[in-house]
Design brief:
One of its GO terms (molecular function) is lipid binding. The chain is mainly alpha-helical and 225 residues long. It has helices spanning 2-6, 24-52, 73-95, 105-124, 130-148, 152-174, 192-224; strands at residues 56-57, 179-180. The two termini are 25 Å apart.
Amino acid sequence: MAENDAMPTVPKKCGPYISSVTSRGMNLVIRGVVLFFIGVFLALVLNLLQIQRNVTLFPPDVITSIFSSAWWVPPCCGTASAVIGLLYPCMDRHLGEPHKFKREWSSVMRCVAVFVGINHASAKVDFANNIQLSLTLAALSIGLWWTFDRSRSGFGLGVGIAFLATLVSQLLVYNGVYQYTSPDFLYVRSWLPCIFFAGGITMGNIGRQLAMYECKVIAEKSHED
């Protein structure tokens, strides 16, 4: 009895998001779910801006949600956001270049605000022609990367995301799923890659911050143990 009483109490491990979840795989799933819902929310808000200004047009029979958006847009954007948010920290680890530039939530929130502002400008601000608008948004998007990221992997992934997303948009418009008013870059608007680039950088920053928070909490728990 005396020996049992003298045995030290082992602290119970706690997960970074849910105290009872300590599995790394499950925490990765939780992080992906968080990124998914962030992407869904941003898609609903930003797509509403585009539709209100008649930048994007959907057939009447697919406008089914209370947010005046095609039902498939938020889930697709949420899935893409989860993939991008998980890919950025994974790429950082693979390259052995942990991203430490402006790693705090206030910086991430400012990055989201700038991204929303860029998207808002594409729908609300009137320019003399699409070339001026595209060049302005390109400069703002690169400025967003320089202000909140500055990593080579971030820039490379942003360009890749912009290319793939623009290609998918071209195919969707070509097949009549939706359309853009006044297309000037094949079937879409020439500034669309800038929006995708800025969106990739933004979701990458959110994903990196969530990954860093997870590592920080796990490190603190290990230190306490």
